[in-house]
């Protein structure tokens, strides 16, 4: 536990923090200087008089300031709580409501905020009925402290914290309701950082480079806490900078010696699409040994295209590794071993039934071309990391043999304590086991994440997942990944699928899309196709589609936002929003009854909410957590209460998600579009990695559920300029 802050006492003099500045410039702060700054800012925080362990909300977008403030809060014996930035939301009023909800739950004693957002912060604290001290960003606060002659260094920082004390309060993006805070203890945070270090076989000469947003778990824990606490040289870009210049990120590896990174499929696909081979002349990628892929469903074809781009310059394809994780487990759950070659598996969707053996066979290795014919493809997410254990369980919680489909259940020291709810209570996961709400199977030593249990329909005894359908639709000419989403649910006449597409015309792709959907469904399953303007697919700040909110809006007063081009209009469907979780089972017996997965939700408040976002996953991330990728890509906040129909759905952008991110790419982030608006931060949906979809509604005891898809998170963050990405960290980190 103390090791997370040991670097403050003995910082490495030969490594430090590199921050991307304007143009191609980088600023550099060696760790000894950074440590001194952290100590001084810890003193500033303590001067406000907070109680030990009090929450410090961080409303910061500048990389160095964020790192200093976060580490200073830990050093001062306080609890940092990152807040998604305004750029993650398209509307200021929506963000204001989101911020007020977050601060009402966090009840911060201190809010560290940049001057441009100070008024928003004060209004939100007042609206939440709280009281907090407001502190300027570290650069300004320390300059003021120095100018007034106040102490520049803390003579003695608080001692070690108890493993059970809260170390981090991480908020979900709230795909289906009010954001909830995930309470991460010192023991869990320390255990997960150790697990990541051991999994990646960390070396003192490693160099980490990241463009993921720092306010979500994948970018926060994996891309900042891990490298800083180990004294690893760290290069940080913003999602916006990456989207505008992916070559600059590649230069971190080819010219500056970076060896480790993590990103959703979108990031690698964006490089393959936007960087010309000649731009890499003189690059040397032979030292790049770890390229984690998660936060959305991993697309083998996209990763093969990336490997083709960089292989001529020394890149080894075995550096590409799939991973699965979620905020409820602090971050990482499972991951392929560096250099081992991540397997790509072919399976038949017709075999997907709970408790039934999945007919799987190895089709190839991630980074190599794999023929698409012969079944659906899924990427392995490796074995559990650290002391974590992963079981595949049936409806009653009994373990299933390897190769059988069931719900992913996680145990271990990295598990968070539970969700901090709006009334201030803690909804614990219970019994030390996290029922993730992700469906998957284990095969050949790897966890394979198939999809989100609630995003499915039972067809002829088999389960069809929305993310699998979205993965197939990625191949339809004219449909851009990240610009469409599939909703599945029950109506008054039976099962129904709705394809939502952002765009103005359907002619080029409609027939092929219908044929693709019908091939994956069955006669009798209704299909509707609707189109709307860009930005109308609502997403969380982590890039995950808000499926329940979308269904409610489509069948209610906001349906006018969309135009039906095939099948019955959504307003003619008589069912409520599709379930995002299985029926709430009796206490301590979370259910995976595929027959009831799509019954209309009754929206009870579960005693044990289900986890929302996956951060690392290898399966198809439907809710790509692009959020992790792009703060600007946030989608309409979860200010809209679950089950209500927003009068004006706010266009949201996918960011990056951690679950299988199928189709979750941040559509609006596509630099290839002439629309300048698409280059804005708001369009950069990072993948999800954040604890975003932890809506406990309808979640069974000990279940972690959300709208995301395993391994897709479904955002992870999925910032996809070209709509290339899908999103989680699963294959996927969600």
Automatic annotation (TrEMBL):
Q: Which intervals carry biased composition (Low complexity)?
A: 610-624, 640-666
Pfam families tied to this protein = AMP-binding
Q: Which residues form the AMP-dependent synthetase/ligase domain?
A: 26-419
Annotated spans, Disordered: 560-734
Matches recorded under SUPFAM superfamilies = Acetyl-CoA synthetase-like
- Composition bias of kind Acidic residues appears in 627-636
| Compositional bias of kind Polar residues | 589-599
Q: Give the family, as the similarity comment puts it.
A: Belongs to the ATP-dependent AMP-binding enzyme family.
Its name, as the record gives it, is: AMP-binding protein
Biological source species:
Actinomadura fibrosa
């Amino acid at each position: 536990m103390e090791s997370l802050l040991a670097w403050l006492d003995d910082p490495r003099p030969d490594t430090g923090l590199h921050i991307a500045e304007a143009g191609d410039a980088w600023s550099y702060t060696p760790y000894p200087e950074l440590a001194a700054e952290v100590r001084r800012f810890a003193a500033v925080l303590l001067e406000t008089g907070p109680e030990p362990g009090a929450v410090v909300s961080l409303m910061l977008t500048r990389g160095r300031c964020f790192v200093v403030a976060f580490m200073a809060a830990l050093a001062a014996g306080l609890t940092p709580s990152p807040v998604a930035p305004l750029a993650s939301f398209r509307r200021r009023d929506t963000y204001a409501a989101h911020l007020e909800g977050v601060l009402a739950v966090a009840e911060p004693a201190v809010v560290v905020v940049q001057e441009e957002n100070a008024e928003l912060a004060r209004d939100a604290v007042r609206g939440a009925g709280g009281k907090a001290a407001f502190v300027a960003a570290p650069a300004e606060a320390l300059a003021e402290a120095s100018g007034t002659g106040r102490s520049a260094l803390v003579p003695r920082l608080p001692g070690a914290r108890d493993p059970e004390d809260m170390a981090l309060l991480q908020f979900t993006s709230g795909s289906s309701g009010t954001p909830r805070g995930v309470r991460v203890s010192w023991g869990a945070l320390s255990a997960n950082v150790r697990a990541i270090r051991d999994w990646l076989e960390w070396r003192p000469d490693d160099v980490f480079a990241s463009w993921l947003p720092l306010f979500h778990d994948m970018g926060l824990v994996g891309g900042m806490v891990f490298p800083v606490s180990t004294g690893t040289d760290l290069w940080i870009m913003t999602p916006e900078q990456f989207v505008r210049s992916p070559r600059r990120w590649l230069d971190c590896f080819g010219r500056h010696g970076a060896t480790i990174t993590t990103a959703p499929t979108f990031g690698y696909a964006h490089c393959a699409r936007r960087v010309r081979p000649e731009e890499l002349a003189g690059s040397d990628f032979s030292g790049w040994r770890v390229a984690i892929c998660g936060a959305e469903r991993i697309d083998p074809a996209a990763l093969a295209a990336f490997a083709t781009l960089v292989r001529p310059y020394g890149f080894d394809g075995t550096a590409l590794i799939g991973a699965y994780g979620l905020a409820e487990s602090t971050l990482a759950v499972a991951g392929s071993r560096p250099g081992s070659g991540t397997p790509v598996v072919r399976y038949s969707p017709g075999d997907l039934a709970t408790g039934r053996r999945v007919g799987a066979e190895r089709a190839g290795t991630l980074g190599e071309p794999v023929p698409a014919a012969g079944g659906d493809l899924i990427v392995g997410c490796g074995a559990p990391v650290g002391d974590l254990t992963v079981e595949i369980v049936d409806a009653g919680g009994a373990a299933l043999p390897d190769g059988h489909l069931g719900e992913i259940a996680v145990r271990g020291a990295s598990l968070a304590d539970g969700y901090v709810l709006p009334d201030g209570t803690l909804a614990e996961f219970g019994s030390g086991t996290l029922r993730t709400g992700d469906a998957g199977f284990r095969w050949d030593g790897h966890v394979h994440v198939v999809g989100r249990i609630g995003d499915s329909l039972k067809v002829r005894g088999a389960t069809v997942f929305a993310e699998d359908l979205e993965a197939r639709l990625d191949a339809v000419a004219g449909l851009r990944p990240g610009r469409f989403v599939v909703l599945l649910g029950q109506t008054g006449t039976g099962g129904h699928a709705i394809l939502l597409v952002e765009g103005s015309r359907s002619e080029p792709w409609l027939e092929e899309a219908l044929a693709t959907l019908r091939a994956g469904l069955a006669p009798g399953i209704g299909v509707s196709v609707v189109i709307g303007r860009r930005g109308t697919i609502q997403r969380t700040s982590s890039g995950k589609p808000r499926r329940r909110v979308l269904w409610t809006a489509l069948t209610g007063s906001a349906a006018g936002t969309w135009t039906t081009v095939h099948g019955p209009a959504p307003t003619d469907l008589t069912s409520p929003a599709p379930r995002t979780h299985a029926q709430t089972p009796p206490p301590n017996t979370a259910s995976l009854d595929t027959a009831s997965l799509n019954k209309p939700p009754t929206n009870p408040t579960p005693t044990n909410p289900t986890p929302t976002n996956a951060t690392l996953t290898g399966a198809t991330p439907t809710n790509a957590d692009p959020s992790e990728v792009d703060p600007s890509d946030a989608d309409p906040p979860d200010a809209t209460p679950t089950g209500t129909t927003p009068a004006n759905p706010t266009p949201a952008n996918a960011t990056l998600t951690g679950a299988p991110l199928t189709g979750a790419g941040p559509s609006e982030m596509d630099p290839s579009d002439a629309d300048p608006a698409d280059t804005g931060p708001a369009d950069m949906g990072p993948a999800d990695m954040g604890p975003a979809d932890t809506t406990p509604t309808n979640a069974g005891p000990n279940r972690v559920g959300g709208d995301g898809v395993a391994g897709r998170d479904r955002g992870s963050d999925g910032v996809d300029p070209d709509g290339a990405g899908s999103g989680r960290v699963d294959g996927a980190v969600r």
